[in-house]
Each structure stands twice: as structure tokens, then as C-alpha cells.
Design brief:
Blueprint lengths: L2 H6 L3 H29 L11 H17 L1 H11 L1 H21 L3 H28 L6 H29 L1 H22 L12 H15 L3 H17 L1 H4 L1 H8 L3 H10 L1 H7 L8 H5 L1 H17 L4 H20 L4 H29 L5 H7 L1 H23 L1 H12 L12 H11 L4 H12 L4 H23 L2
Helix pairs in contact: 2-3, 2-7, 2-8, 3-6, 3-20, 4-5, 4-6, 4-9, 5-6, 5-8, 7-8, 7-16, 9-19, 10-20, 10-24, 13-14, 16-18, 17-18, 17-24, 18-19, 20-21
């Protein structure tokens, strides 16, 4: 069956579901790629000036719940109806984006992000279920390929635009996410058709309880549990793209050579996406991961088809570790862009194979159960990623933390960072008292405190996952 004839067989609800996914990913990643910067950047930029550790707690806990709660929210959607839960999800999302843009304290921001992640958890099980319901054995492969493409188109457009909007005002980033998510009310209202759910017998409470019983049944397979624990390390390393990468680039990397390179070929593009100072924002740079996936996913998928899923995963995670080393070990913006490409290639080889492997090893009568529990290492990986990108990143690579060490070593008297003395004020004042420019101070800290050592941590976590997977394959599997 040709690809055109397959595409013609998809109904309006299939396409509506995919477009809803695109706009949801646009709204989510447009804010999420910039969120770490919003949490930790200096207050006079419109950000809220929290510490790296506070950022890690907020992002790690909320994102963990986003991937754990679908165990419950999927059961709720089956009982209450997909359309109602979609409307509820959009409403929670939009109010969450508004609160994140309005609140300024750690406690309120923690609440706002948890609230927003509940919106995501309500949304997450529905669209993938709709793709499954509206495809057949003949059309599901291409159908899920289209679905994955929509995710990455949204994942590229959102951060790419956010990188431009945040230069004008952080408020515009949240307005973008709110408006984009609001479009989904219309698509859902006009084009989304509620599926017929056969099983209506048990109560909602029993359905939720059964979901946890099912997890327990699946986790009785100790070999599978061991595999999931190892994969926590992969997701921990992977999530540094969102948790640490934007912060690292913002603090240490001069992206003007990248801007100049783009300007020499496409001046209009450089001016459209660059900063007034002639640089590329960390958020726009981070959007390149999704862009590379859009371009290369089919080629990478065709290449890794010849390998067993576990072997492809090991190779992909090793490549991803190489990408992380380039992303965090230097100040060359072109090398960092290359690192993003290498990272994306590793992601493309490993992430889809993770899902495929779980599907293959699951017993025929428990495939749905196993697929449900495959979200557990992603949830745990977010929590661990939050910890690594918080206190661990802070002590190794945070410019404020390292500068405070240097100030103390020199015995220079400095005011505390506060509402009156922002992070940028503190850096400027310290540079002045050390007889340096801000750029010279940044380079001094880079040379003397080696913040690039953080790459050993992130790449090391990914390499450890590869080693453990090899041992698992060699000694645990029959």
C-alpha cells in the first residue's frame, strides 16, 4: 500500500488530533525551553532570579508529575470523556501559563508549575490514544510517524519564536503559549469526534485503583524493572537539554559568531531571530534539536532498523553522550550547535527504540500495561535531572556561585543579592571591584573554575546507562 493511499484513509478526527498535538507542543515547548532561564535570570530582565537549586526543584518535581499522573488521568478520560478532559486540560494549561507569568516567589512558582503540569498530564494520554483508535495495523506505522513529526514541528516552532519574543518581554512568551493553546478549543469543538468507549462498567475510583494494580502486576517482572531503572539514567541525561543547556549558554557562551555566520548568508534571518546585540538566544539555539529531528528522523530510523532495539539504544545513548560533551565543554557556539546535532542524532536512534523495545518484550496480553509503565523512568528521570541541574550544576558551573567563591577568596566586600541588588548588578559590581569588564570576569571564571567540568557529569550519566545496558544484555537477559 502506497503512502498516498494510506494518508487518504485517515479520518478528520485523526488529523484534528495531530493538529491539536502540534499546537499543544508549540505552547508547551515554547515556554518550557525558556523556563529555566525565566526562573534563574536576573530580575531586571523580567525573570525572577531564583537559585539553580530552586529551579531544579520546581522543574524536576512538576515534570515528574507530568509523566507519572497519566496513569490516573488516562483512566479519568476513559470515564468522563476525551473531549471534556481536553477542554479541562486547555483551561488548566492557560491559567497555569498566566500564573507562571504573574508569580514571583519560589513557593507560588512551584504551585503554578505543578498546576500547569497537571494540565499536561490530563492532555498526554488522550491524543496518543486517539491516534491508536483512528489507525489500523496497516496505517498505524505512518500514522504514528505523522504524530511524532507533529510533536517535533511544535517543539521547534515554540522555542524558536519564544527566543525572539523573550527579548521584547517575558510576558510575550506566556501570551504566545496561552493563545496557541486557546486555538485548540476551536479545533476540538469543530473537528474532534468523541470516541466510542466500550467499557463503562466499573466506577472511576475502581478504574484508577485498577491502574495502580496493573502497574504492580507489570513490575513483578524483575528483569523489566531493572531495565526501567537503567533507563532513568538516559532520561536524566537527555533532560539537561531543557534544565541546564539554556542556562549554561546564557551564562558562559558568546553566540555572536553564530549570528555573524547566519548574517553572512541570510541577513534577514539573523536580524529576525537575533538579539539587538548581534547574538542568538539560548532558547532559539535549543530549538535546533527539534529542527534536526524533523530533517533527519526518517534517515536515522531507516539506518537503525537493521539493529536490535537494545543495540540501537546503546549506540544512540553513546552518541547522545558525545553531543552533551560538545554542548557543555566549550564556549564555541558553532561547536555547541554541532553538539546539538550529535545530541539529536543520538536521541533519534535511542528514544523511539525505547518504546519499540518495551513493546517487543511485553507479553501479548500485557502490552498496554507495559507501555503504561514505560512512562515511569521518564518521570523519575525528570526528578533526578532536576537535582543534577540544581545543586550539582550550581556548585560546578553556576556563574553566581563561582563568582561568590572568588569574591570570598579575595576578601572583597559585596552586598547580598536581593530585590535592590540583582544578579546582574552583583556581577557588574564584582567586575568593577576586580578591575575587569564583565566579559573579562566571565573568561576569568571560565579559566580558573572550569565550569565546563559539568559535561563530565552529564555525559557520564549517559555513558553509565550504556555500560549498564550492556551488562543487562550480557548477563541478565536469557
Amino acid at each position: 500500500m502506497g503512502i498516498v493511499s494510506v494518508i487518504k484513509r485517515y479520518n478528520a478526527t485523526f488529523w484534528a488530533s495531530n493538529v491539536i498535538e502540534l499546537f499543544e507542543r508549540w505552547a508547551w515547548y515554547g515556554f518550557y525551553m525558556a523556563f529555566a532561564l525565566y526562573l534563574v535570570n536576573s530580575k531586571e530582565t523580567g525573570a525572577i532570579g531564583l537559585t539553580q537549586a530552586q529551579k531544579g526543584v520546581i522543574m524536576g518535581t512538576g515534570s515528574m508529575l507530568l509523566y507519572f499522573l497519566p496513569v490516573i488521568t488516562g483512566a479519568i478520560a476513559d470515564k468522563v470523556g476525551y473531549k471534556r478532559i481536553l477542554y479541562l486540560s486547555f483551561t488548566v494549561y492557560i491559567t497555569g501559563f498566566y500564573m507562571i507569568g504573574s508569580f514571583e516567589t519560589f513557593g507560588m512558582m512551584f504551585f503554578a508549575f505543578i498546576w500547569t503540569c497537571i494540565g499536561g498530564a490530563l492532555f498526554k494520554p488522550i491524543i496518543s490514544a486517539m491516534i491508536a483508535r483512528n489507525t489500523t495495523s496497516e496505517t498505524s506505522s505512518i500514522g504514528f510517524g505523522i504524530f511524532y513529526m507533529m510533536i517535533n514541528i511544535g517543539g521547534f516552532i515554540g522555542p524558536f519564536i519564544a527566543g525572539v519574543l523573550m527579548q521584547k518581554s517575558w510576558d510575550f512568551v506566556f501570551y504566545m503559549s496561552m493563545v496557541t493553546m486557546g486555538v485548540n478549543y476551536l479545533i476540538t469543538g469543530f473537528f474532534f469526534k468523541e470516541p466510542v468507549v466500550k467499557e463503562k462498567g466499573s466506577s472511576l475510583g475502581k478504574s484508577i485503583a485498577q491502574a495502580f494494580v496493573n502497574i504492580g502486576i507489570t513490575l513483578q517482572n524483575w528483569k523489566y524493572v531493572l531495565f526501567l531503572i537503567i533507563m532513568i539514567l538516559f532520561w536524566t541525561a537527555f533532560n539537561q537539554l531543557y534544565y541546564s543547556f539554556p542556562v549554561f549558554v546564557e551564562q558562559w557562551v558568546d553566540t555572536s559568531p553564530l549570528y555573524d555566520g547566519i548574517y553572512s548568508v541570510w541577513p534577514w534571518l539573523a536580524e529576525a531571530i537575533g538579539t539587538p546585540q548581534g547574538a542568538i538566544t539560548a532558547v532559539t539555539l535549543g530549538s535546533m534539536d527539534a529542527f534536526f529531528i524533523i530533517i533527519f528522523q526518517l534517515m536515522v530510523s531507516a539506518f537503525v532498523m537493521r539493529f536490535r532495539p537494545l543495540a540501537a539504544m546503546m549506540g544512540g545513548i553513546l552518541v547522545l553522550a558525545g553531543g552533551l560533551s560538545l554542548m557543555f565543554s566549550n564556549q564555541n557556539s558553532w561547536l555547541i550547535l554541532l553538539g546539538l546535532l550529535v545530541f539529536a542524532l543520538g536521541e533519534m536512534a535511542s528514544s523511539p527504540k525505547f518504546t519499540e523495545y518495551v513493546g517487543r518484550i511485553a507479553p501479548e496480553d500485557k502490552k498496554a500495561l507495559y507501555m503504561g509503565t514505560s512512562f515511569l523512568p521518564i518521570a523519575a528521570g525528570h526528578q533526578l535531572a532536576g537535582w543534577l541541574s540544581g545543586g550539582v550544576y550550581e556548585r560546578i558551573a553556576d556563574n553566581i556561585y563561582l563568582l561568590q567563591q572568588e569574591v570570598e577568596r579575595r576578601g572583597i566586600s559585596m552586598p547580598e543579592i536581593s530585590d535592590e541588588v540583582t544578579k546582574n548588578d552583583y556581577i557588574a559590581l564584582a567586575a568593577e571591584r576586580m578591575g575587569m569588564t564583565v566579559r573579562e570576569l566571565t573568561n576569568y571564571l571560565w579559566v580558573n573554575y572550569n565550569p565546563s567540568d559539568i559535561w563530565y557529569v552529564y555525559s557520564g550519566v549517559a555513558v553509565l546507562a550504556v555500560i549498564l545496558l550492556w551488562l543487562y544484555n550480557r548477563f541478565i537477559l536469557d
